[in-house]
User: Fold this.
Amino acid sequence: MIDTTRLCAEFETMAAIASPSFHEGEIAAYLHARLEQLGASVERDSSAAVTGSESGNIIARIPADRHEGPPLLLSAHLDTVSPAQGVEPLLQAGVFTSAGDTVLGADDKSGIAQILEVVTVLQRESIPHPPLELVFTVCEEVGLLGSKNLDFATLNARHGFVLDTSGVGTVARSAPCANKLKFRIRGRASHAGLDPEHGISAIRIAARGIEHMRLGRIDADTTANLGVIHGGQASNIVPDAVEILGEVRSFSEEGLKHQTDHMCSCLHAAVRHYSANPDFPKVGVECEIIADYPLMNVPEDAPILYALRNAAATLGQQLEVGRSGGGSDANLFNAHGIVTLNLATGMNKVHTSSEYIRVADLESVAALLLECVRNISSTAT
Ligand SMILES: [Zn+2]
Assistant:
């Protein structure tokens, strides 16, 4: 029932509209109009004032058709990473790529196109379905800003899908929670040649702290990294300040806290080591911990996962249920009580100019989603 020509045309049209994060105005206007053509009631929320995007998140509602179940959420994001300006999608031998040096933007326009196609088929074929809540977020690629500022109180969906992972035939039911870390180490400046005795090097404090830190893969659930370090002013000054940026991710909230505490305590210990001298009371470290995104963990026996597995079996498609290494809008939906899976759309090599998606995959994921919605419909009535 999926119309591949229509699906490809929709994808190509949207891919050709550049929409790097914060510049979602044009794609939002296009999609707003398309959703109204499909009979949805469409709103944009007020998140733009906070996110700085040209548009709010789009929330579109389609009433149920002969169905009494709770609303189903379908979501994808409007923005892409850069470079995106002048994007030109190219279809050759059944594969969409970008003609130039930009990303293709299949992340995440493939997901948007699949949602539009499913809605179109439900309506044209008059297939019974629950109420649909379609949410298209802005600024996903710059820290999930759209979904973090979404007013979840306006949503009634209790379960659903985000379409925003790469590959095909996979769905993520869990994803880590994460903290961003900012460490500011204060040493004491002095002239490196004339008065080194009165200096305390913030670089040495940082070095000692980092030397004792567990980093990389901590255990099966947790990873940690220090990604940026800045400090010092000149080779003849004992440096009095270093700033380090890092992160921790974990599939357990306890693991996240434990590793975050460990990293802070390593730096505190290093400070104590170098500031034992009471002449240097101002030496110290400030650990800023920014909660980045919450844990996602859809239970193995969730009805939405059951419906998806059934749909895959009906269509003879392989389905691998796994973990995602990073956060997505699905983390936020789950944290707000909407049991949400993150379904792979078929996109590949995302965030590079070699990004591509096969037409066959664009189509098979749309077919899977459609079958799943039908499955939810038939099990609920
Ligand atoms: Zn994405």
About this structure: The first strand starts at residue 41 and ends at 44. The chain has a mean pLDDT of 95. Residues 155 and 215 are 39 Å apart (CA to CA). Residues 4-176+295-380 form a domain with the Aminopeptidase fold (CATH 3.40.630.10).
